[in-house]
Write a structure and sequence with these properties.
three-stranded antiparallel sheet, 2 domains, about 280 residues, globular, 12 strands
Length: about 280
């Protein structure tokens, strides 16, 4: 039976992380190991997680490496240990008992599948779909959107992402040098598909997720990181990046000016200048 290394990244959110751990410990897939990576938390996350789940392995990065960097710390251990798959699941998520089994079963159905996602549901709503595995990217407008029903995907969300280790050994891990937060999963999916691998969604893998729990949906810091990563992504993949970036920035700025959110306007421009 193929071995799965599960990586949960924590940053100042031990309450959510502990709930996520408890849901993972109930998984019906028998051959997995859980690794919690603390990404330089400044609260008492490490103490609280060790207290609630003393048997769970906890890796401390010592600094906030961003989403991709923190996940990479766990992925490297998984590769060193000879895992067949790595399951990345956000700490602000809880998984159905069959979630992992469904992901592995889907990945095993076709050897060309390099990444498989879950169906994500809004936490606390029961059955409201947040996204169907991942989403699409419009490289001309510099926009991405989440799929909420079955269909073609350009990327799988890092909120619940099963990766084949053989793929990672060939194409590399998240590009943490370019993407501190946001768009790192999309970049990985583009590189994966360019190398000939495919994406899929396990329709019966159910995960409940809090959207933007770490920073908040309308956080200026979110805007800064999102814009910075989006600009870097478009420079790498868009056919006419200057036009795509201009259109993306224009849409973002108009929306925030219309809502009189001037602090977010400044954050968007700061992210652009930092790219």
């Amino acid at each position: 039976m193929e071995r799965v290394e599960i990586v949960v990244l924590n940053w100042n959110g031990w309450q959510d992380t502990i709930a996520c751990i408890f849901s993972i410990q109930k998984q019906d897939y028998p051959n997995f190991h859980l690794l919690v990576v603390d990404n330089g938390s400044t609260d008492d996350s490490v103490v609280q997680i060790k207290k609630a789940a003393p048997a769970v392995e906890l890796l401390q990065t010592g600094a906030n490496l961003g989403f991709g960097g923190g996940c990479n710390a766990g992925i490297r251990l998984a590769l060193d240990r000879g895992a067949d798959f790595v399951w990345l699941i956000n700490s602000d998520s809880t998984a159905d008992v069959c979630a992992l089994s469904a992901l592995v079963r889907k990945a095993q159905s076709h050897q060309t599948l390099g990444a498989v996602g879950s169906v994500l549901y809004e936490m606390g709503t029961g059955g409201q779909v947040q996204l169907w595995g991942g989403g699409r990217v419009n490289l001309w407008l510099g926009q991405s959107h989440h799929q909420q029903s079955p269909g073609k995907l350009d990327f799988i969300s890092g909120a619940s992402l099963l990766l084949r280790c053989a793929v990672l050994e060939k194409i590399g891990l998240f590009d943490q040098a370019s993407f501190f937060m946001y768009w790192e999963d999309t970049d990985l999916a583009f590189r994966l598909q360019k190398a000939g691998w495919q994406l899929a969604v396990a329709d019966d893998s159910k995960v409940w997720h809090k959207q933007s729990a770490s920073l908040g949906k309308r956080s200026p810091l979110l805007d800064e990181y999102f814009t910075q990563s989006a600009v870097r992504f478009l420079r790498r993949y868009a056919r006419m990046p200057r036009i795509s970036i201009a259109l993306m920035l224009g849409l973002m700025l108009v929306k925030r000016v219309a809502m009189a959110e001037l602090s977010r306007v400044r954050s968007v421009m700061k992210g652009y200048r930092g790219a």
